[in-house]
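Progress narrative, Year 2. Work on 1-acyl-sn-glycerol-3-phosphate acyltransferase from Ruegeria alba advanced from sequence curation to structure prediction during this period.
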Amino acid sequence: MAQSPRRGLNRWQGQMTDTSVSRNAATASAPVRLIKRVVLVLIGPFYFLFIAFVPLLCARRRGFRGWYWRLVKRACSRLLWLLGIRVEITEAERAALAQDRDSIIVINHRSHLDGFALMDAVPDAKWFTFAAKKELCRHPLLRTGFTGAGLVEIDRKNGSLAMETLGAAVREMPARRSVVLFPEGTRARGESLGPFKAGAVLAARDSGRSIRPIVIHASDRLLPRGRFLPQGGVIRVEVLEPFVCDPTAPVDADVARLRAAMLAAFDRA
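Result:
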């Protein structure tokens, strides 16, 4: 049936109205984005230097690790807000993380924004820390803060020592505290997940903990390789069901099964 001229005109007018609204919204948000970037440039360095120097003065205070970790989390959230980046996570997923115990957290690695997004998404009720290469933990300005926050130093040049250090750290952690590992080892270069290393599976088997997989979506679109300043947008943090290792199966089989579960979630997006 032919479309009436009046109906076609109404549809065209509706489309023009929607386009005008979108343009007006973009124009209205442009000054806000500009103000945020100016604040970040002018005040940001002083704020983050304050975060870095706080441990030098307060590291020996009782309860330092707890309140300093929350301070760092708030700083990450404020940085993302100033950059115009929003992190999406469902209330059910946030509740699952708040109740998570005896786990090792693994996340895929897409960009330098991944750690900040995770810090913003995970609720305060869930304690976690990162495994970091020992060179970072030796930096004079960062050493006290990293030590106070409980970062696990990893010697990437010595695989057996790295696993021994990681295993000991995980076994000593309280049940509600988890270490965060990037199973790919570095940022993925392709459109899919990179190959997984066995560290998380070995640490889980050694400690008897489960693995809590978390999939990061779209962070590389906001900050791809070779770019210094990210664009605004949304990063999706997807929390999967706990992964339980099978001690009767080869380690490689557990690694492949873990990667397959995370890849399925990654591809759905």
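Residues 85-268 form a domain with the Glycerol-3-phosphate (1)-acyltransferase fold (CATH 3.40.1130.10). The first strand starts at residue 85 and ends at 88.
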